[in-house]
Amino acid sequence: MTDTTRTDPANRQTAAWGAVLSMSLCVALLLASEFMPVSLLTPMADGLGASEGATGQAISISGLFALVASLLITTVAGQINRKSVLIALTMLMLASLVIVAMAPSFAALITGRAILGICIGGFWALATAIMMRLVPPQDVPRALSIMYGGQAIASAFAAPLGAWLGDVFGWRAVFWALTPLVAVNLVWQLSVLPSLPARRRQNFGTLIDVLARPYFRRGLIAAMLSWGSAFTMFTYLRPFLEQFNGADATTLSLLLLVLGLAGFIGTWAAGRFVGQQIAPLLKLPALIMGAITLALLFTGSSTVMTAALLAGWGGMNTALSVIFMTWMSRNVGDAPEAGGSLMVAAIQGSILLGALIGGLLLDSFSITATFVGSVALAALAVILIGNGQRLLKPVKLTQTLRRWN
Question: Which residue numbers delimit the Major facilitator superfamily (MFS) profile domain (predicted)?
Answer without folding.
Answer: 19-390
